[in-house]
Specification:
- There is one protein chain.
- By secondary structure, this protein is an alpha+beta fold.
- It folds into two domains: 351 residues, no CATH class; 51 residues, no CATH class.
- The strands form six sheets. The chain has a five-stranded mixed beta sheet. Strands 17-16-15-18-19 form a five-stranded antiparallel beta sheet. A three-stranded mixed beta sheet has the order 1-9-10, with helices on one face.
- A hairpin with a 2-residue loop joins strand 9 and strand 10.
- Helix 1 runs antiparallel to helix 13 and helix 7 packs across helix 11.
- The longest helix is centred in the last third of the chain and has 28 residues.
Length: 481
Amino acid sequence: MPRYPLRLSPPPLSEAAAHDELVDALAALPGEIGVERAFPAEVTAEAERAAATVVLPDADLTELDLVTLDPEASTDLDQAFAIHRDGAGWIVHYAIACLDAFVSPGGAVDAEARDRGQTLYAADGRIPLHPPVLSEGAASLLPEQLRPAYVWELALDGAGALTRTGLTRARVRSRRKLAYESAQADLDADRGPDAATLGLLREVGEARLAQEAQRGGASLSTPETVVTADADGYRLERRMLLPVETWNAQLSLLTGMAGARLMLDGGVGILRTMPPADEEAIARFRFRARHLGTPWPREQGYGEYLRGLDGRDPAQLAILHAAAALFRGAGYTAFDGEPPEQTEQAAIGAPYAHVTAPIRRLVDRFGLAICAAHAAGDEPPAWAREALPELPGAMARSSQRAGELERRTLDHVEAALLAPRVGQVFDAVVLAADDRGSVVQLDDPDAQAMIPARLTAGEDVRLRLTAADIAEGTVALEPAD
């Protein structure tokens, strides 16, 4: 069943909260799904040596006025950008952390990263892909620090279409670390030293969103779930993405599409693929959308239709959840020689590759090295090419762990929110329903739950809470009538 996108942002808890039943349950979750928090001693030692002895690239691009834009608490900074106008269009420089400057192929850090697959986000802190001495230190694009990076140079015309791609390995220095909320406030008020940079980000982001609409891609306006903590314990917040977050994401999508084109033209690479929805899924979705009061016009592309929905409206939120049926089958497709039969990521509407988050995602380190070789007219490095067959499986396993951790985190937090209210009746809306039961969204508290009764998506219901088990992360609701 669908859930909201999840972000975890936990500040320290008080001593009293640290002994709470929910805190204990969340702390135990990673171990229950087979995730090790600590790195083996030999991995940490190798990472420390690499951080102390890194050799910076000869190419010097420290003149670029790069900034990072991330959640305020982030220190594992993968990307930095600089934008300037170029006639009627723009030049985007996108610097991506260069992890292969620190990770020796076949070494202890490499082996551990292949096992972990990606950074995981637990309620009590992230579980990084690489040791913190790299992920939050020597490899991170922290402000005013010399760093090795892969630097993309992406030329866009006045409509936002990509006209030229360059990629080189160089030393860079990020100037400032920006945070989403304060950046949006500064842009709205036209203040601060980065107002001009953020204004250019808005221009490029809006142009790329228009390009997305033209190619039939889809951006969903689904609220994000944020698990936060205060002195008393954990709580949930729902929030819509800020415009600067959406524009920032468009830079990553632009780069991923440019990387996929380099790989396809070069004949070696690994794509992030997803097949188009089949006719049966589309027909079911059209029926649901009509039933929920916002029909999908036959002449309108699904991307345009989904972009027009408001995730703050319960009925339209139910449609966005139903749209999950159109976005199934995403995976990684590696190739060496003939391109694969399926090259597109259907939700994006173009071939796409993950090449912008090597600190947090295993596959990007290999994709970046392959793209840089293609851009230079060289053969991809053997260490990256030889890893291609195993990467789809490694990423699938890590994504499964990440999904289970997120799902069970929400289950525990929602059970804790509801536990003091067993016996009460709640207003709710049905988000989705199938033969397994129904997903319902409670009005107060803002929580989701699965109930065994098959109800009708979009309808308002009243439910009685009969049980809530914090340790198990389960709740039981039944129709109050």
